[in-house]
Write a structure and sequence with these properties.
5 strands; globular; two-stranded antiparallel ribbon; 3-stranded antiparallel beta sheet; alpha+beta; 3 helices
Length: 81
């Protein structure tokens, strides 16, 4: 069981995957491509919590807005930064 507390400055890749709701493999892939911020200490790969939260916050602010078309209840995506 992975125990993640708010006091930790860094997260392991499996803990990051659990927080993001993605598979461990996908998380390691995202770390390898630089999509998820990371640092290495020896063989250990760590994800800085503050950088991860900043990345998620920035991604959330650039999401396009959605609305529903009254005629057929389709979701329409508009805008996006």
């Amino acid at each position: 069981m992975i125990n993640v507390t708010e006091e930790t400055l860094t997260l392991s890749v499996p803990a990051t995957a659990k927080l993001l709701g993605i598979s461990r493999g996908k998380c390691y892939q995202a770390v390898a491509t630089g999509e998820i911020p990371n640092l290495r200490i020896g063989k250990r790969i760590l994800v800085p919590r503050a950088e991860l939260l900043a990345m998620l916050s920035a991604a959330g602010s650039s999401r396009p807005e959605k609305s529903r078309d009254a005629r057929d209840n389709r979701v329409i995506w508009t805008g996006g930064n």
